[in-house]
Design brief:
CATH topology of the largest domain: Rossmann fold
Strand content: 25-35%
Structural class: alpha/beta
Order of helices and strands: EEEHEEEEHEHEHHEEHEHEHEHEEEEEH
CATH class of the largest domain: Alpha Beta
Mean pLDDT: 96
Helix content: 10-25%
Low-confidence stretches: none
Shape: globular
CATH superfamily of the largest domain: Class I glutamine amidotransferase (GATase) domain
Number of helices: 10
Length: 354
C-alpha cells in the first residue's frame, strides 16, 4: 500500500507506507546505528532534520522512556525500511510523521554520494506526490534556521545536584542531551543548565567553576550568544564543549567551521588521539565541523577523514570533543572526558560577582 511520499532535491519522489500521518520537511540525514533508536530520536541535535535509519528493522526492543535523551522526538520525521508498531505508535502520539517500506539502502547511498539534502514528506490517507513536493519547496537549509536554539533550549535556568561536592558547571544548553547532565552529576558536580542565549551578566551572577557549551542542532555560527560567552571567559575559567560546543568554541577563538557533505552520525566512528596514538570508537551526530582550530590545538582526529575530533588548550584551560563522550547510545570508550573536564577546576578560581 502506498500512502506516503518522500520528495528529494531534484524533485525525485519516492513512494512509501505511512506509519504515522502528517506532512513535514527537513534535511534528510542517516544514522548507521543498529540500536539506540530511542536515544537517537530524542536527541535535540536532530531538530529540523529527517532521520533515516540504515539498519533495516527499527523498534525490535520496544520503546522505554527511561532511555530518552529529552522530553520529545526531535527529527521532523522518521524513515526506515521497517518500523515496528511500538515506534510507529510513539511517532503518531507525538504527531511526528513516520514512513517505511521504501529502499533505505538507496536513500543512504544517495546521501553519501550527493550529501545531506532537503526533503518533503507527506504521509496518510489521500496524500499525493504533489503534497510532498510542496513541502520540499518550503524546506530551508540548516544554516537558514538562524534561531534554532530557541526550539531545543531550556526556557530558564535549571539546577541539578545543588548539594554536589564537585565543581559548579554552567552548561549552556544549545540542545543538550540528558546524559551529559547525568555524566556530570554522577561525578559530584552541581550543574546549572542555562538557556542558549544566556548573557555575561547571568554567568557573573552564577559564578561557576566551568563554562560548558553543549551539543545542539544546526550551524554553530547561529549560536552567537554562546560564542560571546566563550570570547569573554576564555582564559578566565575553564571551558569545555561537546559536538556543536566544540564548533562554537573554535569559531569564537579565531577559528572557523564549515558544513560537511553528509556529516558523522552513528556509534562506530573511529577517533585517533595524536598524543597517545590510540584509537577509540565513538558516538557522533553532527553535520558541521571545525575547519580551522584558531587558538586551539588539534589533539584528536577522525580516522576516516582527518576532521578534528578533539581541541585542547593548556594555556586557556579548554577541552572540547566533536563526538559524544556520554554515548547513549554507543561505546563507553571516552567517558573519562568528564573526569578531565572537572579536573581542570583544580587551583582555578571561580568567576566572582562584583
Amino acid at each position: 500500500m502506498t500512502d506516503a511520499y518522500v520528495a528529494l532535491e531534484g524533485e525525485r519522489v519516492v513512494s512509501a507506507r505511512a506509519r504515522a500521518p502528517g506532512r513535514t520537511r527537513g534535511e534528510l540525514v542517516f544514522t548507521t546505528a543498529y540500536t539506540g533508536y530511542e536515544e537517537s530520536l530524542t536527541d535535540p541535535s536532530y531538530e529540523e532534520q529527517v532521520l533515516t535509519f540504515s539498519y533495516p528493522l527499527i523498534g525490535n526492543y520496544g520503546v522505554r522512556s527511561e532511555r530518552f535523551e529529552s522530553d520529545r522526538i526531535h527529527p521532523r520525521a522518521v524513515v526506515a525500511r521497517e518500523l515496528t508498531e511500538d515506534v510507529a505508535s510513539w511517532a503518531a502520539e507525538e504527531d511526528v510523521p513516520a514512513v517505511d517500506h521504501l529502499d533505505t539502502r538507496e536513500l543512504v547511498i544517495g546521501i553519501r554520494e550527493e550529501g545531506a539534502m532537503r526533503c518533503g514528506i507527506a504521509a496518510g490517507e489521500g496524500v499525493t506526490p504533489d503534497d510532498a513536493l510542496e513541502e520540499l519547496a518550503q524546506c530551508e537549509g540548516m544554516s537558514d534556521h538562524t534561531d534554532i536554539g530557541a526550539q531545543v533550549s531550556v526556557d530558564g535556568p535549571v539546577a541539578y545536584n545543588r548539594d554536589g561536592t564537585g565543581p559548579s558547571v554552567a552548561l549552556v544548553d544549545c540542545g543538550a542531551k540528558d546524559s551529559i547532565v547525568t555524566s556530570l552529576i554522577d561525578r559530584g558536580a552541581t550543574v546549572h543548565v542555562l538557556p542558549y542565549d544566556t548573557t555575561e551578566a547571568e554567568i557573573e551572577e552564577l559564578s561557576p567553576d566551568i563554562l560548558f557549551v553543549s551539543n545542539g542542532p544546526g550551524d554553530p555560527k547561529n549560536f552567537e550568544a554562546a560564542g560571546d560567552l566563550v570570547e569573554t571567559y576564555a582564559g578566565e575559567i575553564p571551558l569545555a564543549g561537546i559536538c556543536l560546543g566544540q564548533q562554537v568554541i573554535a569559531d569564537a577563538l579565531g577559528g572557523d567551521t564549515e558544513k560537511m557533505a553528509f556529516g558523522h552520525r552513528g556509534v562506530n566512528q573511529p577517533v585517533r588521539d595524536l598524543q597517545t596514538d590510540t584509537v577509540v570508537m565513538t558516538t557522533q551526530n553532527h553535520g558541521y565541523t571545525v575547519s580551522d582550530p584558531g587558538e586551539l590545538d588539534v589533539t584528536q582526529v577522525n580516522v576516516n577523514d582527518d576532521t578534528p575530533e578533539g581541541l585542547d588548550s593548556d594555556e586557556l584551560d579548554i577541552i572540547t570533543r566533536q563526538y559524544h563522550p556520554e554515548a547513549n547510545p554507543g561505546p563507553h570508550d571516552t567517558l573519562d572526558f568528564f573526569d578531565d573536564v572537572l579536573a581542570m577546576v583544580e587551583s582555578k578560581p571561580a568567576v566572582s560577582a562584583d
